[in-house]
TrEMBL record:
GO terms for cellular component: plasma membrane. It is a multi-pass membrane protein. This is Na+/proline symporter. The keyword Membrane applies. The chain crosses the membrane at residues 6-21, 42-61, 67-95, 107-129, 149-168, 180-200, 212-232, 253-279, 285-305, 343-362, 368-391, 403-422, 442-461. GO terms for molecular function: symporter activity. GO terms for biological process: sodium ion transport. Keywords: Cell membrane, Ion transport, Membrane, Sodium, Sodium transport, Symport, Transmembrane, Transmembrane helix, Transport. It is found in: Cell membrane. Coiled coil: none annotated. It catalyses: L-proline(in) + Na(+)(in) = L-proline(out) + Na(+)(out). The lineage of its organism: Bacteria, Pseudomonadati, Pseudomonadota, Alphaproteobacteria, Acetobacterales. It comes from Rhodopila globiformis. Its main location: membrane.
Amino acid sequence: MQPFGPWLILLAFCALTWWVTPRRVNANQFFDGRTDAGDPPGILMVAMSAAVTWVFAKSIANASDLAYGYGITGGIGYTIYYLSFVVAGITIYLLRTRGGYRSLPHFLVSKYGATAAKLFMILVTFRLGNEIWSNTKVMSLYFGAEGSGAYWAAVVLITAFTVAYAWRGGMRASLTTDRVHIFLAFILLALVLTVLFPGLQAKGIPTVAEATRSSGITFCLLALVQVFSYPFHDPVLTDRGFLNRPRQALNSFLLAALLSGSFIFLFSFIGLYGLAFGLGRPPSVTVPGAFGLAMLLVFNAIMLMTGGSTIDSTLTSIAKLSARDWRPQDLAPARGHVTTGRIAMLVVAIVGNLPLLSIYLGDKVGPAIIAATTISGTMVMGLAPIFLLSCIPQAGPISYQMAFWPGVVLGITRAVETFAHMRILPDIVRLGSGPFALDLGVNTWGVALCSVTFIAGAVLAPRPIGISGSVQRA
């Protein structure tokens, strides 16, 4: 049974997902998730979809790893990232009700110009590519060791199936399947915690050394700083802020913050269990392994539910970005956009998994390629003032450039330090203690620098004040 168990779970996942995927959709449904009657999706549907797309396979593994390494503060720190829903939800609500914008690129073109919007979309494309390989890898490791035949078979099958149903229904398929996936994921998580809690309660929440706890607190502060910029470079999240009416979208995001944050925090208890009982790394594999095949299959199902939802949403965002957002004048969806979007899905699904081949390039080149694909998360600190200070009327293209590029430079510098094992930034930059001190310092001082240069751009090269957009009904 053991060799076939994960494949049976994959078969059941594919059958259920295909069953709930819409058979045929029009352009409005493909890009905007509309119902057959042409109505926007409801508050709960958008909330469940947004939540599960951020409770992805890699995120789940990170939450348990951080709790394992830093105790309860590690789990709290990762949960703080889910305040991104609150930051993005309020910002998008204000953009829509005050300016009538229909997407973030629409806003960027109007406020900062087409060049600014193109730079932004190039940046988020790196983020979307990162979502493809990272989630595919985490899911496929439950089928075999990295590089094994079973592993690569899982990579191909998971990717092919996800492309198939995303191709079929776009955003509408993503919304309808996501609500099923998150419902089942919560049930499975409840089952896991029911098994683990008695043992963890008997042992007690594990404590860590004071230095380790301080490192965990530093990570919490890092997460708190990053939530003001991080959500804006993830169209999987922000696209859902424009699917229904502004007030409904805001409510959806607030509910999504509660759903996804709760899931991640509860899942971090997997890491606490592994720490308490001295199990090895990674806890997302060793903890279920300690309970036998049945628990491993439950974890496999959770990873498929959450990872699959993230990949299909990533492909849907790629379709919208390439077919509609890249051309700022093409705001209304058309049938031709669907064809373009589907081709983009296929291309990114293939290219986005190429970093998985880096395991064959050696111990130095392979990790460097993986690190390079993840730079986008550290380059986006400049987006905080670009969106949060956009209310400054004089801020225009120069303000954008003066905020965008310092963040990119600092992010690339930090990435070079990481995978080239060299020190570039001085110790005076550090804030807090432990391995996250430099990142906290770079992000804190970086956001401050980007904000100052953004405001300086508004003073030195003010944008002509005009009226653009149209207010949307809340």
